[in-house]
Amino acid sequence: MLQIKSFTFNPFMENTFLLFDETKEAVILDPGCYEKAEKETLKNFISKEGLNIKYLINTHCHIDHVLGNAYIKRQYNVPLLMHKNEVVVLKSVSSYASNYGFPAYEETEPDKFIDENDQIEFGNMTLKIKFVPGHAPGHLIFYNLDSNICIAGDTLFQGSIGRTDLPGGDHLTLLNAIKTEMFTLPETMTIYPGHGPETNIGFEKINNPFVGERAKF
């Protein structure tokens, strides 16, 4: 059975996700931990549960989602997986990290590129992938049909969508990707976004003011 543990880290209130099952194999998605206390919180939970971290995954590479990349790679000796279109986004972080109050940010390099034709396997679990650009050029989401969950990054939020005014963003591209990719998922599927509380596909298809049936154009 898939279990999800979420942590809210850094001043952007970013959601970091740890997924694991009964085998104790696990993956970490979007580690936003920057301060020592945040890293210790994540490390202590992993130790307490006896988890074996298999992969580090970025849905996309904006600063708030990658602050803990170097720490996770070093601490658990795991590969970093991401879409190839996010390389330029990741490399740019070091140029502005200090301006955002993160002078100790450490650069990292991806170890493997993944896309929507791949699957992430750990323990008895399989995460399927959809390509949902618009907030970021290489944004991926990860879902498991049996557990009815989706790790959505900064694509679809409760009552909102990801911002598209950052470099590589495009509003119409994101709207289209949500409608054609995310809205094909089961309506009961729980969405775990990169910020804020969970929601579900069915609710957003009706109520989301940007992409739902009640959206005003």
Automatic annotation (TrEMBL):
CDD domains tied to this protein: metallo-hydrolase-like_MBL-fold
GO molecular function: hydrolase activity; metal ion binding
Cofactor (UniProt): Zn(2+)
Database matches in SMART domains: Lactamase_B
UniProt keyword annotations, A-Z: Hydrolase, Metal-binding, Zinc
Domain of life: Bacteria
Domain Metallo-beta-lactamase: 13-195
Family matches, as Pfam families: Lactamase_B
UniProt KW Transcription regulation keyword: no
Name of the protein described by the UniProt record: Zn-dependent hydrolase, glyoxylase
Source species of the chain: Belliella baltica (strain DSM 15883 / CIP 108006 / LMG 21964 / BA134)
